Structures are given as structure tokens and as C-alpha cells.
Amino acid sequence: MPKRTFIDSDKLAPVREKLTYSHAIKVGNTIYVSGQVARNKKHVICHKRDFEGQIEMVFQNMKDVLEAAGASMQDVVKLNFFCRHLWDLTKMMPSYHKYFGDHVPAMTAVEVVQLWHPHLLVEVEAIAVIGEEQVIIGK
Q1: Could you give the count of Cα atoms lying within 13 Å of 1 in the half-sphere of its Cβ?
Q2: How do residues 71-89 score in pLDDT, each as one tens digit?
Q3: Among 33, 74, 94, 124, which is most buried by a count of CB atoms within 10 Å?
Q4: CATH code for 4-129?
Q5: How confident is the model at residue 131 (pLDDT cuts 50, 70, 90)?
Q6: What is the pLDDT at residue 136?
Q7: Chain-centroid distance, C-alpha 84
Q8: Where are the domains of the chain?
Q9: Given this model, what pLDDT does residue 104 score?
Q10: CA 48 to chain centre
């Protein structure tokens, strides 16, 4: 059985004891990042009803978790977006390019009725793979 490492970033709100999950789990060279939201280190929801502010914080939180796991945003191979309003995704491009540059992971976006807090507009989970060569096929 592959080794499983439970990862929690000290830059994010502690979740293991209070909410009984980890920021990420590393299995082999794959890192599974829990859904990230616009929540600060004190568990306060930030940028209430402001999609651009929330997605910026989501990506920063994701970056912090990946760095705690020894990875970067360039190692992300899959993103899953859960959005209150899918049309908001068009507003994410400045933040997306800031954190991912020209990197283009696989992506899924799902519109949901509500996330776990009524002021949240987006939650994003990720899968990253480290230590593998990147090959691009096609355009």
C-alpha cells in the first residue's frame, strides 16, 4: 500500500481537529487538495458575495497547501470548480493567469445551489502530480 501523508498548511485555518479533514493528502506522487474557499486563518469567510475576491483567495490558499506538500500550481493536473453561478467563471481569468500562467490542467465546473456557507460563491479542489515530466500533445 502506498504511503499516505496528511498535509495541513500553517498558512490556512486549522481544520483537522475542528472539521475532521486535511487540507491535502499525498499518496505516492499524487496530491489531492481538499476544496478551497475564501476562508482566512481564523475561519472567517472573506470577500462575501465578491467572486473575484473569493477566487483570488481560493487560488492563494491552494498555492499555500501545494507548497506545504512540496508542489506548485504548475503541478496541478485537474481542477474541479463548484460555483453558485457558472457565469462568474469568466471573471476568474486574471487570477487564474496570475497563479497558473500558461499551465492548462484539466478542468470541470459544476453549478451548485449553495456551498457550505451562504456567502461563498466558489469552491475549488485540485489534484497535483509531482516528479513527472510534462508532455503536451496537440495544440
Answers
A1: 2
A2: 999 999 999 999 999 999 9
A3: 33
A4: 3.30.1330.40
A5: confident
A6: 65
A7: 16
A8: 4-129
A9: 93
A10: 18
